# Entry
Amino acid sequence: MTRSILILNGPNLNLLGTRQPEVYGTTTLHDIEKMCANHAAAHGITVVFLQSNHEGALLDALHAARGTHDGVILNAGAYTHTSIALMDAISSIQLPVIELHLSNIHAREEFRHTSYIAPVALGQICGFGAAGYPLAIDALLSWLGAADA
Ligand code: DQA
# Structure
């Protein structure tokens, strides 16, 4: 069966390209979506790419991923540092979730060093800019392949 990965992006990531380019680069979210679609096609997998500024919509998307996708790549934006609800959702859906950030959150302000996602995620990729997305796809596929073996 063709693998399917949900790539979920949280608040303010729709502004990539013009949002603090010195931190996040000039690549737009649409560019990242195209990059992920090309990467998925090269691997013969499906990716679904979503963005929402609303915590509840992100929760709904995580819940709906059960039975639909094999895993999730989540850039929860600032909700990473605040949302116990997202942490609980990840604990509840029984799917592998990779935490992703464009910037290196550990090299930034102290409040960004805390992640509610990290303790319940498969792993974390941060600091590689837009290139982190295809890296996360590769990491998830590799983990799924090992889990199957
Ligand atoms: C981010 C890092 C978060 O701290 C921040 O709130 C974001 C983007 C990143 O991709 O680097 O919105 O998740």
Q: What stands out?
A: The CA atoms of residues 87 and 117 lie 5 Å apart. The radius of gyration is 14 Å.
